Hints:
Layout: E1 18-21, E2 28-31, E3 41-47, E4 52-55, E5 60-69, E6 73-78, E7 90-94, E8 99-104, E9 113-121, E10 124-135, H1 145-152, H2 156-161, H3 182-190, H4 196-203, H5 208-226, E11 230-241, E12 247-255, E13 262-266, E14 269-270, E15 283-288, E16 291-296, E17 305-311, E18 314-321, E19 326-328, E20 333-336, E21 340-347, E22 355-358, E23 361-362, E24 369-373, E25 379-384, E26 393-399, E27 402-411, E28 428-430, H6 436-478, E29 509-510, E30 514-515, E31 519-520, E32 529-532, E33 535-536, E34 539-540, E35 551-553, E36 561-564, E37 572-575, E38 582-585, E39 595-597, E40 604-608, E41 616-619, E42 627-628, E43 638-641, E44 649-651, E45 660-663, E46 671-673, E47 682-685, E48 693-695, E49 704-707, E50 715-717, E51 727-729, E52 737-739, E53 749-751, E54 760-761, E55 779-781, E56 786-789, E57 794-800, E58 807-810, E59 813-814, E60 821-826, E61 829-834, E62 843-849, E63 852-861, H7 868-875, E64 878-881, E65 886-891, E66 899-904, E67 907-908, E68 915-919, E69 923-928, E70 937-945, E71 948-959, E72 966-974, E73 979-984, ...
Parallel strand pairs: 4-10, 20-27, 21-28, 29-43, 30-33, 31-46, 32-43, 32-45, 34-42, 35-41, 36-38, 36-40, 37-39, 38-40, 41-43, 44-46, 45-47, 46-48, 47-49, 48-50, 49-51, 50-52, 51-53, 52-54, 56-63, 64-71, 90-97
Antiparallel strand pairs: 1-2, 2-10, 3-5, 5-8, 6-9, 7-8, 9-10, 11-12, 12-16, 13-14, 13-17, 15-16, 17-18, 19-21, 21-25, 22-23, 22-26, 24-25, 26-27, 55-57, 57-61, 58-59, 58-62, 60-61, 62-63, 65-69, 66-67, 66-70, 68-69, 70-71, 72-73, 73-76, 74-75, 74-77, 77-78, 77-79, 77-80, 81-82, 82-85, 83-84, ...
Amino acid sequence: xxxxxxVTDGTATGQVGFRKKSKVPGVMITQYxxxxxxxxxxxxxxxxxxxxxxxxxxxxFFKAIVTGDPKPTVVWSRNNGDVSDxxxxxxxxxxxxxxxxxxxxxxxxxxxxxxxxxAKNEYGQAMVTVVxxxxxxxxxxxKAPQQQAEVANCNFKKVLKRRSKVVPKAEEPEKKEGEIDPxxxxxxxxxxxxxxxRICAEFGVTDFRWMxxxxxxxxxxxxxxxxxxxxxxxxxxxxHINADGTASFELEFDLLDPSSSIYLYKDGEMIPYTxxxxxxMKHCLRKVGRKYIFSMRDLMPEDAGFYQLDxxxxxxxxxxxxxxxxxxxxxxVKAMEREDAVFECVISAPLSKLMWFGxxxxxxxxxxxxxxxxxxxxxxxxxxxxxxxxxxxIYAACAGIKSCNAWLVVEADKGAPKGxxxxxxxxRAGGSGTDLQKVAQEQQQKLDKEREERKExxxxxxxxxxxxxxAEEPEKxxxxxAGKDKGAAVEVxxxxxxxxxxxxxxAGDSGSGHSAGKASGGAKxxxxxxxxGGHSAGKASGGARxxxxxxxxGGGHSAGKASGGAKxxxxxxxxGGGHSAGKASGGAKxxxxxxxxGGGHSAGKASGGAKxxxxxxxxGGGHSAGKASGGAKxxxxxxxxGGGHSAGKASGGAKxxxxxxxxGGGHSAGKASGGAKxxxxxxxxGGGHSAGKASGGAKxxxxxxxxGGGHSAGKASGGAKxxxxxxxxGGGHSAEEASGGSRxxxxxxxxGGGHSAGKASGGAKxxxxxxxxGGEPGITSGLSDILATRGxxxxxxxxxxxxxxxxxxxxxxxxxxxxxxxxxxxxNIHKLTIHSCRDTDSGLLRxxxxxxxxxxxxxxxxxxxxxxxxxxxFSKPVIVRVGQNAAFKMPFQxxxxxxxxxxxxxxxxxxxxxxxxxxxxxxxxxxxxxxLRSDTGEIKIQLKNPFGAVEATSQLIVLDRPGPPEGPVxxxxxxSSVIEIKWNPPKDDGGxxxxxxxxxxxxxxxxxxxxxxxxxxxxxxxxxxNVTHGKKYSYRIYAENPQGLSDSLETADSIMAGIMILSGPxxxxxxxSTSKTCINLTWTPPEDDKGVPIIGYQxxxxxxxxxxxxALNAINEPIEDVNYAVKDVxxxxxxxxxxxxxxxxxxxxxxxxxxxxxxxxxxMRPCFKDPEDFLVVxxxxxVRVKISYEAEPPPHITWLKDDExxxxxxxxxxxxxxxxxVIPSSKRSDSAIYTIKAKNSVGEAFFDVEVRVTDEPKCxxxxxxxxxxxxxxxxxxxxxxxxxxxxxxxxxxxxxxxxTRMWKTVADRLFxxxxxxxxxxxxxxxxxRVYAKNDMGLSDPSQSPTWGxxxxxxxxxxxxxxxxxxxxxxxxSILVPLKxxxxxxxxxxxxxxxxxxxxxxxxxxYLNNTCINSDKNYYITNSCGVCSMYILRVRENxxxxxxxxxxxxxxxxxxxxxxxxxx
Length: 1463
C-alpha cells in the first residue's frame, strides 16, 4: 500500500483562490487575493520539469525555475508514495542559476510515478506535474505480472515452463565442443527456404539432408504448439533497418484468445515494450489489422542480438539482428561535369544491400544511380551517372546504425560551348583509393576460417557421439540385472531429466548434509519421498518401493556404496548420482524402463532402492565416502539416500505411507537414523553437523520426527510419536546425547535445542506441550570479519553462554599473549587485542572452545593519505579568468579498492559536459572547461577505501570584469549649470575589487557619447558642471577592475539642466506642390525662440472631417529644414498641416494650420520612362515588350506594327504606369517595328521598338578552294539560306593545318561569301570551316576539301634549261562590292568589301565625297584586302553615299553604296 504524500493548499479557511493563466503550458496557478500589491507577484514557472524515461539504477532528476515576489518556496511530492527518504529523494537549490533540482540517485522501478512540484508564497501557488518512467534492467519472464497471478493460483508448472528456449548469456551453460547453437534451429523455423544455405554456412552445418529431416520434425511440433494459440501465421519479415533510423520486424496472425499475452525476448531476456507510438520507450509493438509490427528506436551497438516473439509460452517468430562495421569507408569524390562518380566501401560481414542516401534522400537503382554489390557481398558501390553541378552534396552509406558519408564535388566543364551541354564522358571519378579486393579477400578468409572451425567442432562432436553410442550397447545388457555391475557406466545424453515428476505431497529426505555416521532412508509404504544420505562417508541405500514413486539413494559425494533400489515396474531407478569412489549400480527392473547406476564421479557403490512400480529410484546422488542406502518404499513415494558429504552411515526411517523420511541431514560424524513412520508424516534424522548418532523417534501417524538437527557430537534421538506431530531430537551442536521425550499426541518434542556439551533429555509429555532439555555451552556472540588500520589497535571479542575456556588460532596456528598481542578472559568473555596492527596480523582468526568454534578474518590496511608537499601545493587557490580552463591535480599512492571523488561546494562532480575527470593509478586530475564567474567556490578531492577516507580542499577563483553598478541612477541636483547624479556599487565585483567608475554623457539629439572622467571606487556620485541650460543629457556609468570594464548603468530618462523653456510657434505652413503620393510643404522659423536654439521641427497632419492631429515625425527625430515632403497620404484625400519648433526642452507651440491640400497628381502629357528600342527573340519563344510611362489623367494606349494595327493574337496588357505587348509564340514574320501610342487630354506620345525574331542560322553551302597566286588560297562558299532573311547575319572562317593541328579563327564578321587565306605553305595540309552567325549564335560549320601538299598546286612551267620571269603585278580590282544598308537610328553597322591588287593598293573611304579615314566616329580596318568600316551607333548625319577607292601604281578601282538611317 503506497503512502500518499500530503501537500496542503496554501489558501486559508474561507479564502478564495483565483485561477490565473501561466505563459508556460501545463502550469496551474492559484492566486490568493484578487488584486496584488504593487511590485508583488504570485509564483510562476519560467522552466518546468520535463518528463523522464530512464533505466533502473541511473541518476534521475527534475529541474525547475520559479519566479515570484516574495520568493516562493518549492515543495516536491508524488502521487503514490512518500518523498521524505533522504537516501532516495534529495531537493536542492542553486542560487546562482535559480534552479530547483529534485534528484533520485540509483532510481528504482517502484519510483516510477507522477510527481508534482509546488511553488508557494503568500500571494499564490503554482503547481506542475511531471511523469517518471523507469525501465527495469534484465527484465525476465519470471518477473512478468502474468506469472505472479499464476503463482497466486498455485500454477507452478506453467510458471516453471514459461521460458525462452534461448537462455540469456549470463545463464547459458557451458557449451560442449561442437554443440549446435539453439538459435540455429529457431532461425531456420522462421526463415525462407532461400536463406537456409546462408544460415547453415553461418553456423557451420554441412549435412543438409540431416538438417532438413530434423527441421521438418521440429516444424511439425512447433506448428502443433502454435495452433493452440494462433491461426493463419504468415508474412514473416526478418528485422531490418528503416529509412528513419529505426529497426523493425513484422508478422501476421490471428489470436484465438484475444486476451493471450505476447512477450518479446532479446537473447533470452524479456524486454519491456509499449503499444503507444508516442511513448518514449525504446521498444514498441503495435498492431495494424492482422499485422504485428515490432520496432526499436535510438539504435545502439548493444541492440544487436537474437529477438523472439512468443504468444504465451510458444515461439512464433525468431530473427537475428546483426551489426556490421565499415572496414573501408566512402571517400570524397571530385568529378567533372557529365562524368560518372563512384563511391565504394567494404563492410565487415556479408550484406546483400546497403542503404544509400544522397543529400538526405534515399537512393534506388535507376537511370541516375547504379548500386553494385560484389559476389561475396562485402564490397558495395554507388555510381552517380552523368554528374551535373546540381548533384554535388553529401552522400552516405548506412548499414544498420553504422554509416559513413563523403562529399561529391562536381566541377563545371569550362571547355563546354556556351549555352550547350558538354559531351557525355565515359570516365569515372572517385573510388576509395585502396585495394578493396584485397581487403575483402582478407575479411572473407577470416570469416571462412571461423566457419571451418565451427564445422570441425561439429564433426568432432558427432564422431564422439557415435563412439559413445557404440560403447553403450554392451553396457545396457549388463545394467538389466539387480545392480551387480561394479563399473562406473555413464550415460549422460539419454537421461530424460524432465520426464519424472514428483507425485507425492510430502518430501522425505534422509541424510541431506555432511554426515560422518550412517544415513539410511526410511521405509515407505505410500507415495511419499524418502531421502537418505547427503555428502556421506558411510552407507546410503535407496529404500524399497512398491508403487510408482521415486527412490533416490546416495544423493551426494559418496566414497562408499550407493545402490539403486529394485523396481518391479516401468519406473526409473538411479543409483550413484554424484562423485562416488565405490560402486554405482542401477536397480533391477521388471519392465522396459531404464535403470541408471552411477550418475557422477563415484569411488564407492551407489545402489538405488527397490521399487515395485513405475517410480524413479536414485541412489548415490553426490560426493559420498561411505554407503548411502535409500529407505524401503512400498508405494509411489520417493526415497533418497546419501544427499550430502557424509563420513558415516545415514539411514532414513521406515515409512508405511506417503510421508518423507530424512536421515542424516548435516555434517554428521556418527549415525543418523530417521524414525519409523506408518503414515504420510515426515521423519528427519540427523539434520545438522553431528559427530554422534541421531535417531528419529518412531511415528505411527502422519507426524514429523526429526533427530539430530544440528552440529551434534553425541547422540540425538527423537521421541516416539503416535500421532501426526513432529518430534525433533538434537536440534543444535551437541557433544552428548539428546533425546526427545515420548509423545502420545500431535505435540512437538524437542531435545537439545542449542550448542550443548552435555546430555539433554526431553521430558515425557502426554499432550501437545513442548519439553526442552538443554544448558550446554554455546557461543552467544561470535567473530566476524573486521578491517583494522595499520598502526592502530584492534580487538576481537567472543561471548559464551557459560564460563568456559577457549583457544585462539590464526591461520591454523595457535596464538599466545606477547609480541604485540594480548589474550584475556573475563568470565564468559574472551578477548584478543592487537596493540599495533601490522600487515603480518592479517589472516583468519579462530576461537575454539571444546567442540564449539567461531572464526573471522582480520584485514590490516591504511587509510589513504596525501603527501604533505602535495597537500600544501593543492591547497593554494587556482585563479583563472572567465572562459579559461581550470585544472586541479592531486598525486597519491596507488592502492587497491580506492575510490576518488571530486566535489564543488559539497556537490559531487560527474564526468561529462564541461567537467573532465581523469583517474590514473597514482594521481587524479580535474578539468573545468570554459569557467564562468559562478564556478567560483571550494574544490575538494576525496580518497576513500574500506579503511577510511581523506580529503583535500582547494579554492577556485574565477576572475571577471565586475557587474554593472546598481541602479537606478538618482538625480541629486540639477541647475542651469550643474547636474549631480548618484548610484550604488555593483553586486558582483568580479573577484577583484572595483578600482574606479567611469562616467560618460550623451546630449539629447546626438549619438556621440563623451567621457566626462572617472571617480575612485569609494565615491559613487558625480557632479557635471559643463551643462547648458535647457538641454537634456543622458549618463552612463561603468565599474572598472583589473579585469576590465563592466556593462554600463544608464539613466532611464534624460536629465535637463535647469527648467524647461519652449519655443514660440513657426509660421503657417504653405503647400508647394501635390501629387497622389506626396504633398510638399514649407514654413518659416518662429519669431521668438525664447533664447534657446531650435534643433528642428515636428510636422502634424489632420485629415478633413476629423479632429485628430497625427505627428509625422517623433520629437527625438526632428526635421532640420523648413520644408518637408509628406508621403503618408491617401490618393484623393484632403489634409491640413501644422508645425512645432523643437529645442532642448521639447516641442513648442504649434503654428496655425495650413490650407487644405488634396493628394492628387497634376495634369501632365504622357511621357515614356527609359524604354528599350531594340529586342531580339529566338523564334518560338514569347515576345514581351514592356513600356513604362507617366501621364495624368491616365492615357489611352494603342500599339501598331509597322504603322498598321496589330494582329488579334497579339496581347496587350495595360496596368497603371505600364503597358506590355505579348506575342505568345513568335515567328520570323513577327519581326517588325512596333509603335506604342499614349494619348490623354493634355497630349500624346509615341515610341518605336524594333523586334527581331530570329533563330540559329543554317550552315553555309559547299566550300570551294582556289589558288589565285602563290601562297594565297581563295575560300568561297554558297550563302546560308538565312542570309536573305537576316540582314545581321555574317560569316566566320576557321583554319586548321597539319603543323599545329589546331583550329583557329582567321576571319570574323564577313558579310561577303569569299575569303582569301594567306601564308599557305607547300607541304602542309589545310582545312577550312565556314560558320554563319547572327544574334542567336553560330550555325553548324561547312567543311572545305583538303588543301594539301600534293593537290591544287599552281603548275610551274619549265623547259629544263631556263624559265620565264613571271610578274604578279596587277591593278586594283574590287572582288566584293559594298552592300546597301538601312539601319535604324542608334544601331551598330558594318560595311565590308574585298579589294585585290599588286602592289597592295591604298584604300580610302569617302562619305558624300569627304574622306573619313581619320574620323574617329568610324572604325576602319584593312586585313589582307578585306576592307571594313564599323559604326558603333548610327546617327542621322551618317546617312549618305559611301565610296571605297583603291589605288596603286598600276591603276585605281572603286565601289560605292548608299546608307539610309531609319527613325
